[in-house]
Design goal:
The chain has about 475 residues and is an alpha/beta fold. Helices cover about 60% and strands about 5% of the residues. The chain has a 6-stranded parallel beta sheet.
Length: about 475
């Protein structure tokens, strides 16, 4: 058999390598499928990680260059050392990061993926044997944009970078896109010395990095979940480009899966906000538009004791979680309150808005960490149908996703965005530290409605007090 394979120019190692890539790709698909549900997401991560580990081990063991040489021992040692250091560093960072900083972590890890793909493209462009010039240039541009854009997103989420809301920014970004396109076309023309091409490619790298920064700078805070999803898709596409450069099926399919999943999620989130992706990118939503100037009304507070009584003697309660719940690290106490209410015969569910929090699925991850059963998490549209039969809605740290300005204020930047319609319920309790505006910087007139009662204080402390009150009844 070995003789037959040799006569065909194929070795056993080649077959094992291709089979490993195929198996790894299958594991990627299985992992992605399992990631679609919170209760199976952990297993999905492990399946996908196993596929990547198999692809890496198979590459080290069986890969040969065009001359038929295996990877040198020195290079194998470097690869193993780098992977080990990266694994240790990533594990330590992931274990120590707080849930409130999870969006920043996602942005940072996404940036490293974009940077890796950009560096691969930059290195491989200098290789005379590389025949994939267009793919290499696209990988360089997309990877660079994903890197610098994700780092700016990280800075914004961490409060270290501000927004630039200026009309001229979209014209600057369009101009940069034109420059990037022109440089790619110029390099592809190829009628110049290779050294000149390299200089132009370095210029392309610089312009792409600048575009990544300026592309994210005007985007307001309320759009950050969409931006993170979009940048994640960029990283996947850049990884697929690197796979085409190396003709590596595992990298190609893995990148395509990440790129496609990120793109689909971006589109779904835009639909959830009733906005186009172009509007998200150039619309500067979250820039603090005040909306229509109208009478606010009077704030009506509620004591923890009265809130506990109202909840304990209800038949159905909906909890609307937001970023404030994550900031207070109050998900476990919230789950405790939910269980106490259920012991008293109250039906408790969670209404989940698609863009609540700072990243896609932030509230799902937060509540899953507290072991809240997945079937209790109700999507926005289904929750809105159920709210007319609900006695009390408890809003914990959410703001923009329950703001009625989206329905009744045509001058508001969020007008037309679907919201959780808390006012359909009989009573609304809003738990907030103060009267601060949400991430979009827009006044929320829900606070002043006749149905609404405000319970001020840190969410964790307020929930703990409610737990004590309910226990005492």
């Amino acid at each position: 058999m070995d003789t037959t394979l040799t006569s065909l120019g194929v070795s056993v190692g080649d077959i094992l390598l291709e089979f490993s890539y195929l198996t790894g790709a299958i594991l990627f698909v299985i992992g992605l499928k399992l990631l679609s549900r919170p209760e199976s997401a952990k297993r999905g991560n492990l399946w996908a990680a196993a596929g990547m580990l198999l692809a890496m081990v198979a590459t080290v063991a069986f890969h040969k260059d065009d001359a038929g040489h295996s990877i040198a021992l020195t290079n194998i040692i470097i690869i193993v050392v780098v992977i080990t250091l990266g694994t240790i560093t990533g594990t330590l960072i992931a274990r120590r990061v707080k849930m409130t900083a999870m969006p920043q972590l996602v942005s940072f890890f996404n940036a490293t993926g974009g940077l890796a793909s950009a560096l691969v493209a930059l290195i491989e462009f200098s290789d005379p044997a590389n025949q994939s010039t267009l793919v290499t240039l696209l990988g360089l541009v997309i990877g660079s944009v994903a890197f610098s854009g994700s780092m700016i997103a990280y800075g914004k989420l961490d409060g270290k970078v501000g927004d630039i809301f200026a009309a001229y920014m979209k014209y600057v970004n369009i101009s940069l896109l034109v420059v990037i396109t022109g440089l790619i076309v110029y390099v592809m023309a190829g009628n110049m010395p290779f050294e000149t091409q390299k200089l132009i490619v370095y210029g392309l790298l610089a312009v792409s990095l600048i575009y990544g920064v300026l592309f994210v700078m005007p985007i307001g805070g309320a759009d950050m979940p969409v931006v993170i999803s979009l940048l994640n898709s960029f990283t996947g596409i850049a990884a697929a480009m690197a796979g085409f450069i190396y003709q590596n099926e595992a990298m190609i399919l893995g990148g395509i899966l990440v790129g496609a999943a990120g793109t689909i999620l971006t589109v779904l989130m835009c639909r959830a906000m009733n906005r186009s992706l172009l509007n998200v990118i150039v619309g500067a939503f979250g820039g603090g538009g005040a909306g229509m100037d109208k009478e606010k009304g009077t704030i009506k507070e509620i004591s923890a004791s009265d809130a506990g009584i109202l909840l304990a003697y209800s038949q159905k309660v909906y909890i609307v979680p937001g970023y404030g719940l994550a900031v207070a690290q109050a998900q476990h106490v919230c789950h405790e309150l939910e269980k106490l209410l259920e012991e008293k015969g109250v039906e408790v569910k969670y209404a989940i808005h698609p863009v609540a929090g700072r990243m896609p699925g932030h509230m799902n991850v937060l509540l899953a960490e507290a072991d809240v059963p997945y079937e209790k998490l109700v999507e926005m549209d289904d929750a809105n149908q159920d709210l007319p039969n609900t006695d009390v809605v408890v809003v914990i740290g959410a703001n923009d996703v329950v703001n009625p300005a989206a329905e009744d204020d045509p001058s508001s930047p969020i007008y037309g965005m679907p919201i959780i319609k808390t006012l359909l319920a009989k009573h609304v309790i809003i738990m907030k530290r103060g009267m601060g505006k949400g991430y979009a910087g827009i006044e929320n007139h829900l606070f002043y409605h006749d149905k609404t009662r405000m319970l001020f204080g840190n969410a964790k402390d307020s929930l703990q007090t409610l737990v004590t009150e309910v226990k005492s009844l």
